[in-house]
């Protein structure tokens, strides 16, 4: 007589408890590592923005060497890429003074704020990044005065 054979299947895989333990370990690692990564990202964005301000300052100095003055506030940083159509007219404009045809944005994709010598007390300019929060006059703002 033949006895029916019972097939025993192996129970492969993970139990629910094992999966939960692994997820808890991963969550703990993320909680420890994520703040460090975010701090590094914030620091690098600040360094990139400072470098872009320094490049704009170099372009503004070249503009002044050629024309004898910095662009006015109304002309803005666009005066570095195209001949200004308003305000004080540069007589020896040799632009564009920037490599790309557009004025660069800060590391958070915000436009830089330019204040020309017509609105500063010291006859020079001010370049400001409104920072990550994109709000002027807050603690995360970066200006050309901070770089010098």
Structural class: mainly alpha
- Rounded average pLDDT: 87
Distance between the termini: 98 Å
Biggest sheet character: 3 strands, antiparallel
List the total number of helices: 2
How are the strands of the largest sheet arranged?
Answer: 1-2-3
**Rough outline:** elongated
Beta-strand content bin: 5-15%
What is the succession of H and E elements?
Answer: HEEEH
Return the CATH architecture of one domain. Answer: 2-Layer Sandwich
What is the CATH superfamily label of one domain? Glycoprotein, Type 4 Pilin
Write the CATH fold name of one domain. Glycoprotein, Type 4 Pilin
- Main CATH class of one domain: Alpha Beta
Taking pLDDT < 50 over at least 5 consecutive residues as the criterion, the unreliable ranges are: none
Oligomer: single chain
Gyration radius, to the nearest Å? 29 Å
Helix fraction, binned, reads: 25-40%
List the helices and strands and how they pair.
Elements: H1 16-67, E1 113-115, E2 126-129, E3 142-143, H2 144-147
Antiparallel strand pairs: 1-2, 2-3
3D architecture notes:
This protein starts with 15 loop residues before the first helix and ends with a helix. It is built from 2 helices and 3 strands. Strands 1-2-3 form a 3-stranded antiparallel β-sheet. The protein has a domain at 50-147: 2-Layer Sandwich (Glycoprotein, Type 4 Pilin). The radius of gyration is 29 Å and the shape is elongated. By secondary structure, the protein is mainly α.
């Amino acid at each position: 007589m033949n006895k029916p054979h019972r097939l025993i299947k192996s129970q492969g895989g993970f139990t629910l408890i094992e999966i939960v333990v692994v997820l808890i370990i991963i969550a703990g690692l993320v909680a420890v590592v994520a703040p460090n990564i975010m701090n590094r990202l914030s620091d690098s964005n600040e360094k990139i923005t400072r470098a872009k301000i320094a490049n704009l300052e170099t372009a503004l100095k070249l503009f002044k060497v050629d024309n004898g003055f910095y662009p006015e506030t109304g002309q803005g940083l666009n005066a570095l890429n195209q001949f200004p159509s308003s305000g004080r007219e540069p007589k020896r404009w040799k632009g564009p003074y920037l490599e790309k045809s557009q004025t660069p944005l800060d590391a958070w994709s915000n436009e830089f704020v330019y204040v020309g010598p017509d609105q500063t007390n010291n006859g020079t300019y001010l370049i400001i990044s409104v920072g990550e929060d994109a709000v002027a006059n807050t603690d995360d703002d970066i200006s050309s005065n901070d770089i010098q």
